[in-house]
Design goal:
Distance between the termini: 24 Å
Largest sheet: 5 strands, mixed
Strand order of the largest sheet: 3-1-2-4-5
Number of strands: 5
Number of domains: 1
Structural class: alpha/beta
Helix content: 40-55%
């Protein structure tokens, strides 16, 4: 597997990463322990892929007889099993020095008319998931079409998010919740793709003002450039400054603001017993599958994820990042990569290809 090969080759990179971050981080996992956990998870994924190929061969003769809906259901069942197995395999080897996992708080959103309960980190398609929740309840009006997907309005977005929180939001401490009667869903996205999205919508150059994020970008600019005359686009932090800051200044709460804190911190995937893991990259299909298994009809699916556009954007910004900054980011999001099945190395490879 390409990911396994990359991880084997990465031993020296991870060693350099340890040296780079020594003295800046209280390292929660030893390097050897983390690498062993990742390799164990990847080996398990190889077994899953082999079982998947066997399954495809056994059922090849029946595929022609299946309807499109049945084919879709089988494809999605296989996808969801692989994701859940990856997470469970990681968590079975997971150790932490963070204290009692059962005291961690997780922000959740639960449907009243279905069994679905979500953990929805910002910048993972959260607007689309919350629109889905409103649709389940039959609470649909024009405001659903006026937020998200690039239609920025601070007032409308805030009103939408506040109403979603009031209708569906609650906080779970540890695993103290009746999960057996619910279908728990974790929403995930590739860490670098999420960083790019967070930067352009919250930190990077933009025309509109944002009273919450403007002070953060000004603080980053001041840290790297001091009292220089920063006006126009120069008043905003660059992507390099943003990533370097949030991966090195971990004592600053803004370094773990919800829009870019690791999903491991936000959703506690080794504490909450998640039944389903959906990805931003496959959000339209994943929402369709959830609606199918929950018997929910009349749902307007989110638009397909433009993977090519995001991949190109990731490549462009990765080429800007110094290798040391990429390594710092890999360390910050290491748990997300290992537990959620995302390849951590395209950014580093893109940088080295320049």
């Amino acid at each position: 597997m390409r990911v396994l090969f990359a991880f084997i080759l990465s031993s020296s990179i991870l060693y350099n990463l340890y040296q780079l971050l020594d003295g800046q981080y209280e390292i929660r996992l030893s390097l050897a322990s983390f690498e062993n956990q990742v390799i164990t998870t990847i080996n398990k994924n190889s077994e899953i892929e082999e079982r998947g190929l066997e399954w495809q061969q056994r059922n090849l003769q029946n595929v022609e007889q299946l309807s499109e809906e049945e084919e879709f259901r089988l494809k999605m069942q296989k996808r969801m099993k692989e994701r859940k197995d990856t997470l469970q395999d990681f968590c079975s080897n997971y150790t932490t020095s963070d204290g009692n996992l059962h005291t961690k708080k997780t922000s959740m959103f639960s449907s009243r008319s279905s069994k679905l309960t979500f953990c929805i980190p910002p910048k993972t398609g959260s607007m689309s998931i919350k629109k889905f929740l409103f649709q389940i309840e039959g609470d649909v009006d024009e405001r659903l079409n006026s937020v998200g997907h690039g239609k920025f309005s601070l007032k409308k977005d805030d009103e939408f998010m506040m109403k979603a929180g009031e209708n569906f939001g609650h906080v779970v401490t540890g695993s103290n919740y009746d999960f057996k009667s619910r279908t728990t869903v974790l929403v995930a996205r590739h860490a670098f793709s999420r960083l790019v999205s967070a930067y352009w919508s919250k930190i990077g150059p933009r025309k509109h003002k944002n009273p919450y994020f403007d002070p953060i970008t000004r603080k980053i600019v001041a840290y790297y450039r001091g009292d220089k005359d920063n006006s126009g686009d120069a008043s905003f932090a660059t992507f390099v400054e943003f990533v370097d800051y949030i991966t090195t200044k971990r004592d600053d709460p803004d370094s773990n603001e919800p829009h870019w804190t690791p999903i491991e911190n936000y959703c506690n995937p080794c504490t909450i017993p998640y039944d389903v893991i959906i990805h931003t990259e496959t959000l339209s299909d994943d929402i369709r599958y959830l609606a199918m298994v929950e018997g929910i009809s009349g749902i307007t699916l989110p638009p397909p994820y433009d993977y090519t556009k995001t991949k190109d954007a990731m490549k462009s910004v990765c080429e800007q990042l110094p290798e040391s900054t990429i390594l710092q980011a890999l360390w910050k999001y290491k748990m997300d990569f290992a537990s959620l099945g995302y390849d951590p190395f395209p950014c580093l490879l893109a940088r080295n290809a320049v």
